[in-house]
């Protein structure tokens, strides 16, 4: 798949490259990303104003697309449904976690400057915390 990778905390380190297509594991969905939206955090990461030590990364926290594939035993989602992957995909409920509250898309996990991303597909009373319809 095509991605835009940020190799260092400088805008001039953004470059196009190719990664292997991700595959959803058990309890995950594969989202084909159609749009990405820059926000303050994305600019801070790309300009070195938000310190990271895990370069290279696929940046940009916000995006949207549709489900392209589903890992077993996910039953609450269908291929083709339009979704918005959550910035903190493992956050299910309650107050928003602090900066160390779990991996974040575009920072610790692959972000939205990619053709595809794998995210958890949680089910139950708080379904959709990882992806929203």
From TrEMBL:
It comes from the Bacteria. Gene3D superfamilies: Medium-chain alcohol dehydrogenases, catalytic domain. Residues 25-121 form the Alcohol dehydrogenase-like N-terminal domain. InterPro entries: ADH-like_N, GroES-like_sf, Zinc_ADH-like. This is NADPH:quinone reductase-like Zn-dependent oxidoreductase.
């Amino acid at each position: 798949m095509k991605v835009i990778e940020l190799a260092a905390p400088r805008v001039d380190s953004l470059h196009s490259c190719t990664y292997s297509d991700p595959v959803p594991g058990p309890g995950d969905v594969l989202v084909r990303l159609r749009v990405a939206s820059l926000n303050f955090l994305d600019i801070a990461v790309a300009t070195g104003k938000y310190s990271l030590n895990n370069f290279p990364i696929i940046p940009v926290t916000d995006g949207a697309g549709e489900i392209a594939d589903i890992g077993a035993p996910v039953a609450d989602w269908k291929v083709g449904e339009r979704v918005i992957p959550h910035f903190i995909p493992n956050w299910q409920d309650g107050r928003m976690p602090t900066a160390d509250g779990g991996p974040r898309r575009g920072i610790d996990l692959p972000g939205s400057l990619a053709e595809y991303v794998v995210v958890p597909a949680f089910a139950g009373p708080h379904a959709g915390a990882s992806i929203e319809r």
